[in-house]
Design brief:
With about 375 residues, the chain is an alpha+beta fold. The chain is built from 7 helices and 17 strands. Strand 4 and strand 5 form a beta hairpin.
Length: about 375
């Protein structure tokens, strides 16, 4: 026996072992098992109300990424072993390729995707959000909250209030509209006093103000803000928030009509995306209607349920989402081709002439 045959005999167990492992990795049974397990995991991840925990303990965890990698390898081997452009296998090939592309897209999003959360008060802007572990994520732009409002179906009561936003402390307090009264802002050196109320504000002359009528067409209040020995007075308008107020001020005043007792219908945030000192995008977002800019999506996530003072935003970037969409397209095309197009092209969807003749003769008899 020559050396070549002897070497082949010695390597036979290794070859058989490698072929067995390759056969196991590309088996349909393994693919179905992995798909069922992944589907169960995704259902659990969807049911979890706190998506930050789902990202931390499921989607970005090593065991989930390992399962996803094994599924991608299995699908790649399945597609490679069954790849064919023949008409009868074109639908199956497209479906397998679609599942592979989809899994790769999900894997890219799980590994290289970003997701953070931030709370913004009206008039504030930020270029940083925080992941589920509290680590900062620096954004290539700033997000500014211009306005935030909560809509309700029906309200049992309503009241007007002076809302004080302290920007540095990220604190908000609301006080009733009571002319002549002074209120202390708890935990701060500030005091606010409502000096005057005009239901239909109008400028009568230089330094002279009044009302056109008694109807609340343009309600406004005159407020004095006191901070130690310093104080200033300004008019605050209900219909024109932000008028006569600096965006860099440490304190912001709003005159709001607050609905109480009604069931919440929706909550919306009017956002601006600022890059290079310019507004490059703006939109009023609500649940399931995000603002999208250069691969980032800004979602309405939560809000201050007690004072309605801030809006909670989720900012996410998923570089694999395009592959996910492409995978769904391949899968849909493969299924449609297999069940509808292929039977027509191969003639299997047509009624055979001989059978048709037999049926006609039977009916005539």
């Amino acid at each position: 026996m020559n050396d070549r045959k002897l070497t082949d005999i010695r390597n036979t167990p290794r070859l058989l072992s490698a072929r067995g492992a390759l056969k196991a990795l590309r088996s349909v049974r393994l693919a179905l098992t992995l798909l069922v397990v992944m589907a169960a995991i995704l259902i659990v991840g969807t049911v979890i109300r706190n998506q930050s925990k789902a990202q931390r303990y499921i989607y970005h965890h090593w065991w989930f990424i390992s399962l996803l990698s094994l599924l991608c390898l299995n699908l790649f081997l399945c597609v490679a072993s069954r790849w064919s452009l023949k008409l009868r296998k074109l639908g199956s090939t497209s479906t397998h390729a679609g599942v592979l592309v989809l899994a790769v897209g999900v894997g890219i999003g799980a590994i290289w995707g970003e997701s953070g959360y931030v709370q913004l008060h009206v008039g504030r802007a930020t270029g940083t959000c925080y992941d589920d572990k509290g680590r900062p994520i620096t954004l290539p732009f700033e997000v500014r909250l211009d306005d935030f409002k909560v809509e309700r179906y029906a309200a049992s009561t309503a009241r007007e209030a002076l809302v004080v936003h302290l920007m540095k402390e990220r604190m908000t307090r609301a006080f009733p509209i009571a002319v002549g009264k002074q209120f202390e802002v708890p935990g701060t050196p500030y005091r606010v006093a409502i000096l005057r109320y005009e239901p239909d504000f109008v400028i009568l002359g230089k330094g002279t103000y009044g009302s056109r009528s008694r109807s609340p067409n343009n309600p406004a209040i005159q407020v004095r803000v006191v901070n130690g020995s310093q104080n200033h007075t300004q008019w605050v308008f209900q219909k024109f928030p932000g008028m006569h107020q600096s965006g860099n001020s440490e304190i912001r005043l709003d005159y709001k009509r607050m609905e109480l007792g009604g069931r919440i219908k929706d909550y919306k945030s009017r956002l601006q995306v600022i890059q290079g000192g310019k507004v490059v995008a703006s939109k009023t977002i609500e649940v399931n209607k995000p603002l999208k800019y250069r691969g980032y999506a800004i979602y309405q996530s939560s809000y201050d349920r007690f004072r309605e003072a801030w809006s909670g935003l989720e900012i996410a970037k998923d570089p694999g989402v395009q592959l996910v969409y492409l995978g769904f397209l391949f899968i849909s095309g493969g299924v449609l081709f297999s069940f509808y197009v292929r039977p027509i092209l191969t003639g299997k969807g047509r009624v055979q002439p001989s059978r048709l003749a037999v049926n006609v003769e039977t009916k005539e008899e």
